[in-house]
Amino acid sequence: MTQPATQDIARNKMVDGQVRPNQVSDPRVIEAMRSLPREAFAPAGALAYADTDIDLGQGRFLASPLVTARLAQLVLANNPAEVLVVGAGSGYLAAVLAACGARVVALEEEARLQGGALAQYAPEVESVCAPLAAGYPAGGPYDVIVIEGAVPAIPENFASQLAPGGRVVAILADGDEPGGLGRAVSAEAVGKEFVTVRAFDCTARILPAFRRAPAFSL
């Protein structure tokens, strides 16, 4: 059996064994995850279809297939036309959302997206290299801003980058421990604050760019 065929089998097992049985029913997400080669977005030798996060280096991770699927389904709940992915990592979630029909801007602080799997499998996605915490107002307004990774809180400045009725989808970390528990939320801006609706619980890898500075104490 050739390697591509082996990966195709693993991809279908991922969808049928990890994604579909766990409250992921959006056919767009299921089809996108069946068709996109997740292994192309992971480091060489990584277990791309295992039920786990994948270390991308420098404190960054590709979320597990189930977390990716449920985030994508949450983003797509209101059929957004314009989506900003903050902390896009290797670009897998951005590619999934683009395959589902959204116009996607993928924001990263490093040039890791340039010329990688995202450019090959989702060339329609706009890749931007800029500070994550600032968002990317030049590409907005967005129907949804999704933060791909856990954060202690949603930055206030994201509110001004949303279209009327827009949302932020994020994983709010319950603590500062790596890989600790978090809760995925859908948040709407009300003034300078966000009103959040809890969607599901999951493990959370805090994005280094959003990690709180250690507090000084005597």
Automatic annotation (TrEMBL):
Signal peptide: none
Pfam families found in the cross-reference section: PCMT
PANTHER family found in the cross-reference section: PROTEIN-L-ISOASPARTATE O-METHYLTRANSFERASE (PTHR11579)
Family that this chain belongs to: Belongs to the methyltransferase superfamily. L-isoaspartyl/D-aspartyl protein methyltransferase family.
Protein's recorded name: Protein-L-isoaspartate O-methyltransferase
Species whose genome carries this gene: Acidocella aquatica
